[in-house]
Amino acid sequence: ANVHDQQLHRGNGGELHQFAGDGYDVLTTAQGGPVDDDQNTLRVGARGPVIIEDFHFREKIFHFDHERIPERVVHARGYGAHGYFETYESFAHYTKADFLQRAGEKTPAFVRFSTVAGSKGSFDLARDVRGFAVKIYTNEGNWDLVGNNIPVFFIQDAIKFPDIIHAVKPEPDRAFPQAQSAHDNFWDFISLTPESMHMIMWVMSDRAIPRSFRFMEGFGVHTFRLVNAKEESTFVKFHWKPKLGLQSVVWNEAVKINGADPDFHRRDLWQAIQSGNFPEWELGVQLFDEDFADSFDFDVLDPTKIIPEETLPVQPIGRLVLDRMPDNFFAETEQVAFMTQNVPPGIGFSNDPLLQGRNFSYLDTQLKRLGSTNFTHLPINAPKCPFHHFQQDGHMAMSNPSGRVNYQPNSWGEGPRESPDSGYRHFPSEEAGQKVRLRPESFADHYSQARQFFISQTPPEQRHIAMALTFELSKVETPAIRERMVSHLLNIDETLANKVATALGISEMPKAADAAVQPRQDLEPSPALSIIEN
Ligand code: HEM
């Protein structure tokens, strides 16, 4: 449209109107009623009171008043894009998931990247974990791989999730800090939660300040299960590897970018996709069986552990290409509902207690956030394959069963029926034991992998970790919390612990934290840190 040719009409009070006609539709109410004047409320005389009879005004304001829905309780700030997943080769040997059977098959996908701790309006370059949630609209229902850009997690059991999130979000009395982990509550919780040490090393590393979403890895984190047509099961860890490689900014840059352009990451994704520069990731898998799992000195059900890629290489099985931005941010990116429990036949769960808890949490939270059990009726959440069920009614039901039948079995020869052959069958793993609240001993080594991560970093990266810990802990006002953190660092890398303690002005070095399992000694301590100068 020509912005200089707007066909404006001046009203009685000098206000400007634009009229329908000449190809412009008539403005209507939500009920479809045509609107004559959208600039003035209905009044008794031009200078008189507004009257309640003005249904157009009331409907317009009513709708506006209810525009906001609760932001996600975590991962509130996010940005999404559409694309597709392309299968490289038939993966039938490991899974019966239909979309993974044929080379070259493309399946539509939607991805939402996010930060975790900040509110919806927070800035993009917070030091934080990034969500990497992928919905693949397979022909056997949606598969949601709701992952992060870090392959491990803070806690081993979902029952601790409210605690870690309460601790990282703004402190309840003062309502700050908004999007930083640098505060007493967070570090208090972490220092009392040794299982978080591996994750903390990643969060203090450059991984937590990515250059853009396009330069991040993604991880399913948990051990999942693949099941093939012969009902044979293989354990699997999922990895997304960016075509562009990994890039981060340094803290100094992150702080400046946050001030200058808090939308830096979303703008980057928008501009890349709008200019045809489509970001791409390979989906890789680490595959293993029970025997291989038993050969580790950690537990594959423990989400604070990785399986080193040197030990078990990641095999690529397909690629994800993001090639289209949503038409509407709210309808798609805000209303998309990811749920770990969305799996097609051929993909299943392990007994990881964090995963098991997540499988409850996501469905529950969608009702709160989206307001209706019918959130699957929203186009972004609806499956793209045929679907038939007897669920009905509820708020905003868009599609109820048609005809007489809304139950089964029935005598009327109507409606969908069960399918023992193609239906989802949970893998019949053998499970037995006492009903207990008991963390397995195999989850107790909290330091070895933290140390392994640290020593695998290059000298500049190690220096960044030391600087990040120093900066973050310098914001902690309670000396005992700082010291408790240093006592954990002593179990990870002594040079690192000394460096941080000195920078924090801790004159008397605390003792190393009591470790349930001593960190592995066969890992090389880091020679690199000796070159840290500042
Ligand atoms: C949201 C990842 C652990 C509860 C999210 C999102 C991601 C994610 C990526 C954002 C989804 C989106 O973009 O819409 C993870 C990962 C975890 C983890 C990788 C650990 C490995 C947990 C746990 C719980 C939980 C243990 C609860 C027991 C939630 C909730 C939301 C959420 C309630 C908000 C969902 C929504 O409103 O749409 N998580 N999460 N998460 N997560 Fe997790």
From TrEMBL:
Residues 407-435 are annotated as: Disordered. One of its GO terms (biological process) is hydrogen peroxide catabolic process. It catalyses: 2 H2O2 = O2 + 2 H2O. Keywords: Heme, Hydrogen peroxide, Iron, Metal-binding, Oxidoreductase, Peroxidase. This is Catalase. One of its GO terms (cellular component) is cytosol. Its cofactor is heme. The keyword Metal-binding applies. The keyword Metal-binding applies. Residues 415-435 have a biased composition (Basic and acidic residues).
